Amino acid sequence: MGTSSNFDTGGKNILDLVKKNHHIKSLIVTAPNKSKTQYEIQPPALDYLENPNRIIADNYYLMNIDMVLKILRSGAKPERHELVAEVHFPPVIFPSKEQMNKFIVLEKVNDPHDLGMLTRSTKALGWNGIYLTNKSGDVYNSFAQIVSKSQSLTWPYIYGSSEELRKFLCDNELKLLIAEPPKQDLQAISQVFCKSDNRIFTRTEELEQHDDIIKTPLIFWNGNKSDSSELKLLSRIALLLSRELKSGKRNNEASISTENEMRVGINAPFIDVPSAGSIIMWELNRITASSKNV
Question: Where is the tRNA/rRNA methyltransferase SpoU type domain (predicted)?
Fold first, then answer.
């Protein structure tokens, strides 16, 4: 069993990988090694033993659960009479600079459920990939794979430090946009997006008479309070989502330096990171879809 592979548990999850044409290197059945009768082996292990052609693998193993847990040495906790598959890491095609215009940056997002949900949303909404920094989790975690419907196996991602992120953004001409809960003095404002020049204004009756104005529930503001320059949403975006988005208490000392970056938020306190990220990504797609600055 090689290092260029990953373990997945659960018959349903493994069958899903097979349907997506992932190569199964090894299939392990966690049943008693020396079963005296067929009744000692229970489903789903029994289902596979009776129908072995359902999952084609290079190698097949029958192991007791203790041996399997020693091999995995991970957060995966397969049950007795379960299936475990060793899957080759599939090749992941990273987008070129020309193909990259909307990217997600994850900061300290280490919960496997959150990673899995954000991977699914990123792909479903047409964003180009994920940059993980500051102790973000493992996209190959078995639970993250289950939640992402195996999308985390093939979706473009890159791990890097805060310093490397700056170079990544510069090399790919991406503008960082920080997702944060709006402060109290911003929660009551209402904004619109101007399609002709990508500027953002506070909504007024006069503005709403123009045909290139889009109303948005998102709230944008400058991170630097002394910065009075106009708000402008560029077409090449790297949206930063942090684990601390839910609490609204972002530790700037341990975080990426973003004092001068533009912020975006939604007026929905204590919303979880995957939900907030999905809402913001969907809305950014909507308001920039017909923008002339592409």
Answer: 103-189
